[in-house]
Write a structure and sequence with these properties.
single chain; mainly alpha; 9 helices; 75% helix; globular; IRG; Immunity-related_GTPase-like; GTP binding; Interferon-inducible GTPase 5-like
């Protein structure tokens, strides 16, 4: 009840901060976190497209990767999939840490998020890799090149961040269920 009252009364930015700080105590919290993160992806994608409009080679990729490192780190921390959060959960739930780690499938959880890690994961996402490469090539096409690069940048960023968010949220769900002793079918 207190959580719902605070959620109604707080301004949006404070409400999100409260939500991301809350532990994953039920499925509803996990889903609300996912929705809040998802709502920000379109704005980050617009930012990515705007940077792609600057006719400087490789600037867009550098900015996108730097932004993604920050955002994916927020996903991992927000869903409690970093090592210290999982260790605290294991102790409080009375479940061995190794059992919680065993249900995690994302290559992003439990790792330090950096450009190299993201590039490895993106390389496995064929469509995103092609979009990012096409964006760099398109900027050299006279007249329409910048517009095409902006559209490709928006699409690549949106799809990549959505994929990362879904992957991390699914892991959070599995860890939550494991911490309660529920067997997951996912």
């Amino acid at each position: 009840l207190l959580h719902e009252t605070l959620e109604r009364e707080l301004p949006a930015h404070k409400r999100d901060a409260l939500l991301f700080a809350m532990p994953n105590i039920n499925r509803e919290i996990i889903n609300k976190k996912k929705e809040a993160f998802q709502a920000k992806i379109k704005y980050l994608s617009v930012l990515s497209a705007a940077v792609a409009g600057v006719p400087v080679p490789v600037l867009s990729a550098a900015v996108d990767l730097g932004m993604m490192v920050t955002v994916v780190s927020q996903y991992v921390l927000g869903f409690g999939l970093n090592k210290s959060s999982l260790q605290r959960l294991a102790v409080s739930a009375g479940v061995p840490y190794e059992n919680l780690v065993a249900v995690i499938k994302s290559p992003l959880a439990l790792k330090e998020i950096n450009v190299d890690l993201l590039l490895k994961v993106i390389a496995q996402m064929t469509v995103t890799g092609v979009l990012m490469a096409a964006e760099e090539v398109c900027r050299f096409i006279p007249l329409l090149g910048i517009s095409i690069a902006m559209a490709l940048s928006f699409t690549a960023t949106y799809k990549t961040l959505s994929y990362f968010l879904n992957t991390v949220a699914e892991d959070a769900q599995r860890v939550f269920e494991k911490s309660l002793g529920l067997e997951t079918s996912v």
